[in-house]
Amino acid sequence: MTETSTLQMLDAFPAAVPVGATELAAATDTCLACVQACNACANSDLLEPDVATLRACIALNLACADICAATARLLSRPGQWDLLTVRDLVTTCVRSCTVCAEECDRHAEHHRHCAICAEVCRACLRACTALLEGEAFPAPGLPAAT
Amino acid sequence: MTETSTLQMLDAFPAAVPVGATELAAATDTCLACVQACNACANSDLLEPDVATLRACIALNLACADICAATARLLSRPGQWDLLTVRDLVTTCVRSCTVCAEECDRHAEHHRHCAICAEVCRACLRACTALLEGEAFPAPGLPAAT
Amino acid sequence: MTETSTLQMLDAFPAAVPVGATELAAATDTCLACVQACNACANSDLLEPDVATLRACIALNLACADICAATARLLSRPGQWDLLTVRDLVTTCVRSCTVCAEECDRHAEHHRHCAICAEVCRACLRACTALLEGEAFPAPGLPAAT
Amino acid sequence: MTETSTLQMLDAFPAAVPVGATELAAATDTCLACVQACNACANSDLLEPDVATLRACIALNLACADICAATARLLSRPGQWDLLTVRDLVTTCVRSCTVCAEECDRHAEHHRHCAICAEVCRACLRACTALLEGEAFPAPGLPAAT
Questions:
Q1: Could you say which of A72, A104, D27, D146 has the lowest number of CB atoms within 10 Å?
Q2: Within an 8 Å CB–CB cutoff, is residue B42 touching chain C?
């Protein structure tokens, strides 16, 4: 894979980034791809003859797109993070990608856009999980030392 | 207070809403007000002579605006929610409003926009907390029965 | 109407605002209300038995919500505007609100959420039009002196 | 370049797309890259010792990020477009990328993040311009046959 502009921007960041640049860039880029795929899948679902069976898929796609969009924005601005806020948002993103991928899987046999979208969601949740496993983030459930 | 269009839209919703309409409308409207106040405060900070002391304030304002924007969108679409995703996003919103209000408080004496923004953030975190205290949301830390 | 926090934030702005504060606050607040109403209407449409006849309404609602959200953000940060960009975005917002209101009108008799959403869109396009009529913005079609 | 998920989603779209898929995917992907680069550049500017000279750069970066984000969302949902709205939004996006690139160019010698961001903005404005030059969009200035 060629170096994306996301990684270039991180390399040019004027301060220390609190997490690994490779993991951060991967999480950011897959969140952005998920914004696209989830919006496209919602719109594709809407045009299908069986739209009435795709209601949950459309709703979960739109929720996932909104959460991934906010996550990509915060991940793109790693200066002056509140680590607990970022950790909780990325955790929420993992959950919404998981739920969206599961719903898309139900329609993947009949709708190729659902199959692709599920794959993009899974790539995003894997990259976000890898980011959370870095040392920077306090473990959830531990007393939060702000 | 006159009834906002948010409450009117909820009254016209064609399905059962899983949380109290009054609490949901209040959380949505204060999130939207927070998007405005946080963007305005970040922009105001930027134009202050002491911008160099307001870096954290700008960064936290922008993060809070992005999270409140995503939260307002999900709260505006209560059909087919994944309750755990919504609960976690609203919880993240409470945290980012808390952190943003605390930082704005530090500058409130010298910058009126910070004082107002801190108030708007606190109204948002109170409304979001009240929403989370409703019966609909599973308590955090309990095994998540998806 | 009581003074909104939007107007308070504008009053506390540390620099000159290039447009009238009353008009700017009204345009910002109606854009935010439109983000809510359009997302809520799209979600309501999705749950209606006749969802298949509401496809255009859902799509136009989501487009209008996205454009109003971006507009509200730029209007909340009036420092260092590129006036032509802001003018063109607000003009685009007027168009998307017009198209969305027209589509919602077609379903207003059967779906109260469409009737309310059309009203909110019209309030937004009126406030945005009033903002554009201020002296600050160069007339469209004139050579753009950047 | 390997096929992005954006192009795959377009290939799986269940209806005719009113513009060329290659041009549409390129405009979408460069808008998403621009959301990242502009947010990252604004945040980098904020941490620079000479932040006081970078105020316009930060403000224009944030505006460009918001407009590119809205554009990417609409471009990801090509079903049921109002062509004039999309044309005007993409045109606004071209303008904001142009203005942002010009401002970043002023700081490119001293700040590598500005140099990279200017390049990403230019890639986005080229892709958006190519999209607008397709036959689908009515020429601006012509009487708009809605």
A1: D146
A2: yes
CA D65 to CA B65: how far, in whole Å?
14
What is the average per-residue pLDDT within B59-83?
98
Question: A140's torsion region: left (phi>0), alpha (psi -120 to 50) or beta?
Answer: beta
Tell me phi and psi for residue A82, to 5 degrees: -90, 110
> Tens digits of per-residue pLDDT, A66-115?
999 999 999 999 999 999 999 999 999 999 999 999 999 999 999 999 99
Q: Choose from C43, C46, C55 for mutation: most chain A CBs within 10 A.
A: C46
Closest approach of chain D CAs to the CA of B122, in angstroms? Answer: 25
Q: What type of residue is A136?
A: A
Q: Beta-carbon neighbour count of residue C94 at 10 Å?
A: 23
Say what the ipTM of the complex is: 0.94
pLDDT band, residue D1 (cuts 50/70/90): very low
Residue type at C57 in one-letter notation: C
Among A55, A67, A146, select the one facing B70 at the smallest CB separation. Answer: A67
Mean pLDDT within D122-126: 98
Given CB atoms, is B43 within the 8 Å cutoff of chain D? yes
**Closest chain B residue to C113 measured between Cα atoms?**
B12
pTM, full prediction: 0.96
Q: Which of D63, D81, D84 is the closest to C95 by Cβ?
A: D84
pLDDT tens-digit series, residues A115-135: 999 999 999 999 999 999 988
Using an 8 Å Cβ cutoff, are C58 and C99 in contact? no
Dihedral sign computed on CA atoms, order B25, B31, C62, A24: negative
Contact B43 C6 (CB under 8 A): no
The rounded distance, in Å, linking the Cα atoms of D75 and D81 is 9
